[in-house]
Amino acid sequence: MDKVTKEVMGAVFFRDGHILVMRRAPFLSWAGWWEFPGGKLEKGESNEACLARELKEELDVDAEIGEFLTENSHGYDFGTVHLSVYRVKSWSGDIRLTVHDDLRWVPLAELADFPKLLPADIPVARALETILG
């Protein structure tokens, strides 16, 4: 089987020094692990449009996507995830879980050491300490 590269967009909800992370539900790969909300880029879609769509699907919120913050590539058994992360400037609606089974607002300084944060997200968490801290 050929290895693939998945282009994935991640959202940084930053509020009162905390970052939102979501726990992957039992029916997903890497179930029980934590990640930034977001998802895979579809053909013909801009990064920002992808992220707005994914946040509507995953959290049932309408989000205004802000500036690009950082990126990371990480190899998994199936291939590589290239994660591009953007700040969420604002959102409307109450966050509702549709594909995750829990959420947490984690202090920025503790994010990189948060238990079971996905491997691709750890370097991003470290970068965010510098960028947002």
Question: What is the strand and helix layout of this fold?
Answer:
Elements (H helix, E strand, L loop, with lengths): L3 E9 L1 E2 L2 E7 L9 E2 L2 E3 L6 H13 L2 E14 L3 E14 L7 E8 L14 H11 L1
Parallel strand pairs: 1-7
Antiparallel strand pairs: 1-5, 2-3, 3-4, 3-8, 6-7
Supply Rg: 14 Å
> Averaging pLDDT over every residue, what do you get?
96
* H/E element order: EEEEEHEEEH
Question: How many structural units, i.e. domains?
Answer: 1
Distance between the ends: 42 Å
Main sheet overview: 4 strands, mixed
Q: Report the CATH superfamily.
A: Nucleoside Triphosphate Pyrophosphohydrolase
Shape-level CATH architecture: Alpha-Beta Complex
Structural class: alpha+beta
Q: How would you write the strand order of the largest sheet?
A: 5-1-7-6
How would you describe the shape? globular
Could you give the count of β-strands?
A: 8
Taken as a percent bin, the fraction of beta residues is 35-45%
Low-confidence stretches: none
Q: Which fold name is given in CATH as the topology?
A: Nucleoside Triphosphate Pyrophosphohydrolase
The CATH class is identified as Alpha Beta
Number of helices: 2
Percent in helix:
10-25%
